[in-house]
Amino acid sequence: MGFKEKAPSESFVDGHEFDFVHLRLQALHTLGHTRDHTCFFDPHNGILLSADLDLTPFGRPLVRIPGIGYRPTARFVAAHS
Description:
By secondary structure, this protein is mainly β. The protein has 2 domains: 13-50, no CATH class; 54-81, no CATH class. The protein is built from 1 helix and 6 strands; from the N terminus they run E-E-E-E-E-E-H. The chain has one helix at residues 73-79, and strands at residues 17-19, 24-29, 38-42, 47-49, 62-65, 69-72. The strands form 2 sheets. It has a 4-stranded antiparallel sheet, with no helix packed on it. The N and C termini lie close together (12 Å).
């Protein structure tokens, strides 16, 4: 698909808090496929935002499309970008 790795433009530490107008998210480093894999926690609502998306040729990640079923993620991304 031609994805190219990019260097991060900014960084943050575990526990960093992002304050938005009506939302505060706390960064939680959750080592996964990469050393900087991160989830985000909304302490006010008790919601954890997490994802594990790997667009490398290593695997065949799938995305679930309601009413359609599972499709390869790379093909889904290409069709909707």
